[in-house]
Amino acid sequence: MYREIGLVEEIDRSLGVDPRQKVTCGEAVVAMVLNALGLVDRPPYHFPEFLETKPIEILIRAEMNVEDFNNDVLGRTLDKLYRACPESIFAYRSFMIAYKGYGGDSSIMTPPR
């Protein structure tokens, strides 16, 4: 489903991709969503253990190791998401509008450039 809506690409477009990253922010978000859908409440430092039993090469991308999804990667991704305002990513993806914050009326929402 996330491939159909282009979730990884949209998040990576919004947050940017550092060529030094082994795991992009979009891929990290997908992994966190899979963790949440599995109803597993594990702290981030146990995340590689959660992924050990999952076919990440099929679910996310080939040539990935579970160790690539470490606490630092997940933390940096959440920090970048917070700074980018997840509401704006959602609004753009859902409605193709730029979200500038809630002001009580629809005049703050403008079409993307």
Helical amount among residues, as a percent range?
Answer: 40-55%
Query: How would you sum up the major sheet?
Result: none
Series of H and E elements:
HHHHHHH
Number of strands: 0
User: Mean pLDDT, as a whole number?
Assistant: 76
Number of structural units classed as domains: 1
Quickly give the structural class: mainly alpha
Name a few traits of the molecule.
single chain, 113 residues, mainly alpha, 52% helix, globular
Layout: helices, strands, pairs:
Elements: H1 2-5, H2 7-15, H3 25-37, H4 47-51, H5 56-59, H6 71-84, H7 86-95
Description:
With 113 residues, the protein is an all-alpha fold. It has one domain. Helix content is 52%, strand content 0%. The chain has seven helices and no strands. Helix 2 packs across helix 3 and helix 3 crosses helix 6. The protein is globular.
Summarize the structure.
Helix content is 52%, strand content 0%. It is mainly α and 113 residues long. It has one domain.
